[in-house]
Amino acid sequence: MINTFVILTKLRITYTTNTVIFCLTRIPLINKLIPHHPYSSKGLKTLGGFISFFYGLFMAIIGKLIYFGVMFCLPYFFLEKESIEGLLSLLCFLTLTGCLMNTQLFNPSKDKYYAYGLMNMNTRDLTITMYIFFLLKVLLGFYVFAILFSLIFDIPSQLAMSIPIFVFSMKAISSALILRFDNKRNENEPSYPYMISALIFVGLGYLCFFFDLGISLNAFVILSIIVCILSLFALTYLYLYKNYDDLYRAMYSKNSFLQMDYSNVNKITQESLQQKIEINEKYTSDKEGYAYFNDLFVKRHHKLLTRSATRYALGIALVVLVLIISSLIFPDFKMFINECLLFTLPYFLFIMYLVNKGPIVTQTLFMNCDHSMLSYGFYREPKTIVYLFIERLKSLIKIN
Question: What does the pLDDT average to over 334-359?
């Protein structure tokens, strides 16, 4: 296992260093200073190694600080809460969310692909080594989290030190349970049961925090001890598990993005969109010229263009409905929603950017229309391009 860890460490250093060198060769002016054979340059490899190491360390620390600040400090000081019990309940529910969405065991990372697919390493040794390393990083990161938790919220340091043990144990238990009952899991593929469960846990956590429905400090310590004991059985199960080959075959199937080059990705995208082309002659339009052309296309591909937007709209409507009902049942909740909306209003610009349906519409237009029409010279004229752009922009605004 130590030998496996050494090989994985060298592998990670090599590919992260090469990634940094590749990025440096793409930066204007800097690429003029780089030798013609950058990957054989010892100086560049040393520089790339330093950059990748400190970048990884920086992102790990920043990630924990953002998590701590946004999920705990912001609501605690914004709502002027004084109860620590609500924070502990929030911590428990957010830990459950993390256990569902980030186990590492079911994440088809590059490290695993290179070691399993290219180097043909033993899957059991590979998995156990990487998972132990992952749990140690979690333990280390949450000790920093616990120190901040103790200093800012003024709780006993002995209690704060039980937080990393609790998170570590919950990660191990959840991984063992998922491996036992859902060993075909792939974290890169959307899983609605996991996503819905995670949203429920987040909602319950903040409801408990808002209404001060928490667990006492002593109860949290006892809970940490219980899950720590259970985690020993979970770790034993993970160590003795013999079907890691099946797990990796499920993660790295023939459609795995890590086994594809860009040409294969484009080919699969093209085939997927071509299968969704609709031919329905009942749709007509009373417009003329290119406006008629665009209107006819949008009508014939209405379901394909609006499917994702409809799902988003239904999800947003559901959230609004839940908030309205909550406000009617709990009058104090109205002020909380009002304050949250006023505080987060500037950030909705970024949320609008994230839910923009432009990429889906553009892909559909290119594959089902432009891909063929660009063969004609008149379709490539500047006047035509500008006119179609304006018409498509109108359609996109309507969809959004």
Answer: 78
